[in-house]
Design goal:
It is a single chain. This protein has about 300 residues and is of the alpha/beta class. About 45% of the residues lie in helices and about 15% in strands. A seven-stranded parallel sheet has the order 3-2-1-4-5-6-7, with helices on both faces. It has a single domain, classed as Rossmann fold, CATH 3.40.50.720.
Length: about 300
């Protein structure tokens, strides 16, 4: 191999690649959209709020000279997913990169982390407080967007992804699921629902990678589990003092800061580019060391 093929500009180049990012207009999704576009990809961004997507696409087209296409799509609605797929199929006939990023927070029991809260005085009181403070409907809604959506969006676009893999030998199309450190740690952080839904997303990643590989379909599936990042689900700006309040761990985050957009985008670009072309069925944790010092399943 010539030395030029090892240069970052070559192994991370996404020129000619077509990407779709769910929830791509805000927060972590926007960080990812910027990274893919800056690396040369044409990016479709989806979400429920078309006005937000249109504003982002206009801004990024001006700032980066990138091609960003807004598509209104609700990842919890099968008809909406099919309409989104049809748009990409008609315009492109293929897809190279799918980032399942859409997600939200849900039911919480905010007293859990406070040992002095009256709700925690004994087993009966704590159990009743948790039972009464959360709803089955809330759990259903959160699982729909944080885990079930990964199943339905990935299966809908799988044929287009396989078609994209035909463009270049050994440069398979790629799915990246945005999970969370909340899905791999063993403390609840006040929200059993969110953490268990993200754990389901992590396992869906592994099941998809295995089943797709066993069926000899040339599509890679990986996940990224972020730690504390600035987003609509946390805060627009996170100071070092806020990191541990958001992380709600047993120990402080060693980095003592939130992650940056460049770190998030760079990890996604690695996974979907030639640099990460031999990576399949993995979940990369980018958390400033949070999982290293807190109880986890990894």
């Amino acid at each position: 191999m010539p030395l030029a093929s090892y240069r970052p500009q070559a192994i991370s180049d996404l020129s000619g690649r077509i990407a779709l990012v769910t929830g791509g207009g805000t927060g972590i999704g926007l960080m990812i959209t910027k990274g893919l576009a800056a690396a040369g990809a044409k990016v479709y961004i989806t979400g429920r709020r078309l006005d937000v997507l249109q504003k982002v696409s206009t801004t990024l087209a001006s700032d980066l000279g990138a091609e960003i296409i807004p598509v209104q799509m609700d990842v919890t609605d099968k008809d909406s997913i099919q309409k989104g797929k049809q748009i990409v199929a008609e315009k492109e006939g293929k897809l190279h990169i799918l980032v399942n990023n859409a997600g939200q927070v849900g039911p919480t029991s905010p007293f859990l982390n406070n040992p002095d809260a009256p709700q925690n005085k004994d087993a009966e009181t704590m159990g009743n407080a948790m039972f009464n403070s959360e709803s089955v409907e809330g759990w259903k809604d959160l699982y729909a967007i944080n885990s079930a959506s990964i199943f339905f969006v990935t299966t809908a676009f799988l044929g287009l992804l396989a078609k994209g893999s035909e463009d270049e030998v050994n440069n398979w199309s790629s799915v990246v699921n945005i999970t969370s450190i909340s899905g791999v740690i063993k403390v609840a952080q006040d929200h059993f629902c969110y953490n268990s839904a993200k754990a389901a997303a992590s396992h869906l990643t592994k099941m998809f990678a295995t089943e797709i590989a066993l069926k000899k379909i040339p599509v890679r599936v990986n996940a990224i589990a972020p730690g504390v990042y600035e987003s609509e689900m946390t805060f627009d700006e996170i100071t070092p003092e806020m990191v541990d309040k958001i992380g709600k761990g047993v120990m402080s985050t060693p980095a003592r800061r939130p992650g940056t957009g460049e770190e998030m985008a760079g990890t996604v670009v690695y996974l979907v580019s030639k640099a990460g072309g031999f990576t399949n069925g993995q979940e990369i944790i980018i958390d400033g060391g949070y999982v290293a010092v807190n109880p986890s399943v990894v």
